[in-house]
Write a structure and sequence with these properties.
4 copies of one chain form a homotetramer. By secondary structure, chain A is of the alpha+beta class. The first copy, chain A, has helices at about 60-70, 80-95, 155-170, 205-215, 230-240, 245-260, 290-300, and strands at about 15-30, 35-50, 100-115, 120-135, 140-155, 190-200, 220, 270-275, 285-290. In chain A, strands 1, 2, 3, 4, 5, 6, 7, 8 and 9 form a 9-stranded antiparallel sheet that branches. Strand 9 of chain B pairs antiparallel with strand 1 (about 15-30) of chain C.
Chain lengths: ~300, ~300, ~300, ~300
């Protein structure tokens, strides 16, 4: 058979940054401390293409995903990001003309959480992982990222302040010092926050620790099972911890400094948060990206 | 050319209920009282297929949509549902083997609204329309539906009640009679409510009147422009009008009885509402379907 | 605590058909013949609400989902639809005021398939299940549905015919009798086909058998791993088996008659198919719904 | 009223790169050569936030969008990207603490196109625009991007080659020299291609010219109205112009060099393309980003 992909390009001898496949879904078995879990993961993989080659051998991408990911059914991997790293390295081995390989993956992820021990059930989160393999002389350099996303709740501090002013006029007793700390109405809403770490070689982070950091940044985590008294607890927590999206992001990033003292300063951090405003039809958002070293300096200042 | 569609079916002589095209997007010009607006409408159209015919002449569907919808650029139609009706009737004329034609359409729709006159801006809503043409002897019977969807806000009455109990223990002064009507914290969230009317011939309803009915059913409408004091107004309104999804649906349906006295009892009503709970990662919903006659009897009981 | 849900409705004493929760995601462990698989399932559950009750006890829905679904981690269920049935029955027990409970669920599902034994890998499909429990005197009647969706490929028989006419003019040798069966170019595309069975009590169907029936109805199944020669095999198969969406549906339904002789005639069948046309920006679709008894009569005619 | 946003941050004195609103939908009236069209545009706007300020005045974002976009109903703008530029500049004026403002917008867009003059109808495309305003001493620097996306068709050159080899064995006459140019079957599919230009000040490009360049890069454009003979024309065109995603991207970029000789070399180009493979359940993609100067050098080499 003629190797059409290896022919010279017909429509311009241009190198391309990225050629690959997206939306390949696979069951991925991951070894946790106490048990094996199966993620329904969605993968995108790509390599660069030199200017003298018509096509990338895309069938190799699906083949190696099948070899590496399907094999986890009997030999679970350590994590979603370790699977991505292995795939990125193998992509470079199977595309000898490529200099860079990129892999990204996402998967729904469940943790048993609850407002109390007897209310625990599986809450759903999102896991994110990326890997990038770069040919470097004879060897291959590997860059990895690991992230997660959690849905929680925010309560607005500004509307809380203006509602208090308004209500104190209507209910003068509200100004009584004993009611100083009474939580006041405001708008509250779903908040979706994402945190991703770009990691140097041999540095590891646990996804569960990322999710803990995110949920601490929100006004309150949310739960599937809330009996009536529990609802009041969540509502009270959120209103005693009112936060703009700006506050969520700063809380989260301050928490990262405190929670991950062992990480080296060159770790890059990408954080973003979206509140699906209850008083508007649109969303509000905040995002930041900086190295852990810069973050530590800002927090220490 | 061989007419492949008119051949006998090769894989079983089965009649089919519905064969058509979906996701055809078109700009549709609609004449409003004071001006012409252009909707970006998405259409789905289908007809039935008899057991002795291999295929439906689908190119006629795209052709008639182009003729009827594209023509509105110079001759605007009265409404999205009148466009659907015209398309459904024309489908039967161009598919002589069909007995039933069905059309549905949706479009984003903007109305200038605001919490006060000087805060008005375009708020976005969804318009919905359906039409069904049925061959009846020599003639064609036409059935139409018109509906709309609006995003608003709900505040939970149950968590408000349990929060009050909890707060009265911590803040005894809260039990003072002068604070009886003080709005108490609860969870509030985005609510998405939809109302559709199946109309008999010659009965008309205005989309704007449907949207008014929906927004009255929610704890509060929401707005793009809210300066700081306005936010408090919306939050206060919502907390003085706390509603479960069940309450939203019953308010809305009671409002329909009051707002549309001129409609005949055989009008069928489909209503549904979804609250994107701020204290959970999942949504809660309520739905109902009944004739206006039944609804009036229940409300009068 | 005051039971707000049990109070009388404030906004109209209307009964409601359906009140519940949607979008609850859970890991569901299912026992297959040879192993346990874990589905990431999304559930919607609802019950009706009488006219004299303000709210449905929605926290019970999340609680019972956690009890029943989370428990499968240690005790796998037989299938997605048996989980739905169990949930529907339990909903009626925990909502004593309700007469009807409805559950629906969907989950991505993987089967090891390949164009040949050495090309097998996990292909992704969609599983669907529904259950409805109706209070009937002292007892509960249970109705179940099981379905699945598969992505495959269709090649258009009409464009194939017109392309042949056109090409025979340009290449007279093409009319040579030896080339009568040469597959001719046409447009081909992704096809998404869904088949759902409404089952009477004690009647069971395997999801894998439903997927086999769907893939037989399409011009060709599709595969993740196709080395170069394999691509030609799939393309040839599809072009030797050109099908309109109408053909896909009729093939599928004829196959159902042949594949499921043991099913009783009252089984209801819902089938639909969508081809994401390569020559248009929109999709074409066909749908049918009938009992197996009616289907058998039509096929036999 | 207390200005909560102007207070010092409580959760860490960190500057934030981006705080804003997303998903604001507005009708935007745009002046074309011959008429005014109304786009249903979706906007996202954001500014940076200094470390000493708790919140960004987000109500100003909605307010200025209403002022600028709603006003186009009576005074149409020149283009989506000029609207974005105006908004970005105004964001900096209304957020005096911000140094950078970013705006992005997308809108469905219709052009009357057809395979022949008498088959013209509105085809749907996507318009994209971005603007970035940076405070620079006393002034403001403005960066703009304009882009578009079109759905077309690709036919695979590799499967075409392997199908020919396979068919020549089965149909020896196919090797006859007179059939050398006979188009051979392959898989073909929907292709979605996007092209975005980052523009220096005062450089303009027409969206319609971008869409022309994209459609030339695909194996064939697609059309809503295709009578039977027209389908053969599109299928033949696509099979005489078989293209990998790599080919689509290179054709497109070569076309950019030829079509836009007047553009300066510092224009940055972002191009990406996705083919929704008919023989797989997943998509294949290619992407590139480079300056027009680099592109010209590569094409000239």
């Amino acid at each position: 058979m003629i190797d059409v992909h290896a022919q010279l390009p017909r429509f311009g001898r241009l190198s391309l940054r990225r050629v690959g496949v997206t939306g390949i879904k696979k069951p991925l078995a991951v070894q946790r401390a106490d048990r094996v879990i199966t993620l329904t993961a969605s993968f995108a993989v790509a390599v660069d293409l030199p200017s003298d080659r018509k096509g990338s051998d895309l069938s190799r991408n699906a083949e190696l995903l099948a070899e590496l990911v399907d094999a986890t059914a009997t030999r679970p991997v350590a994590s979603l990001e370790s699977a991505c790293s292995e795939i990125a390295g193998e992509l470079l081995r199977r595309h000898p003309y490529a200099k860079v390989a990129e892999v990204s993956a996402s998967a729904e992820y469940f943790l048993a959480r609850g407002i109390s021990e007897d209310r625990r059930s599986y809450e759903d989160y999102l896991l994110l992982a990326e890997a990038r393999a770069v040919r470097n002389g004879e060897g291959i350099e590997l860059f990895r990222a690991i992230g997660a996303e959690a849905v929680g709740m925010t309560a607005c501090p500004c509307a809380m302040s203006t509602c208090r002013e308004r209500l104190e006029k209507e209910f003068p007793l509200l100004a009584d010092p004993s009611l100083k700390d009474l939580p006041i109405i405001t708008h509250n809403q779903r908040n979706r926050t994402r945190l991703v770490f770009d990691l140097p070689p041999r540095v590891e982070i646990e996804a569960d620790a990322i999710l803990d950091a995110i949920e601490e940044g929100q006004s309150s985590p949310t739960f599937a099972i809330l009996k009536r008294g529990d609802e009041a607890t969540v509502v009270l927590n959120a209103h005693r911890n009112p936060k703009f999206v700006e506050d969520v992001l700063r809380s989260l990033l301050s928490g990262v400094v405190r929670r991950f003292p062992q990480l080296p300063p060159e770790v890059n951090i990408r954080a973003s948060t979206v509140s699906e405003e209850s008083i508007h039809k649109y969303d509000v958002m905040a995002a930041n990206e900086l190295t852990l070293g810069d973050l530590r300096r800002q927090v220490a200042a």
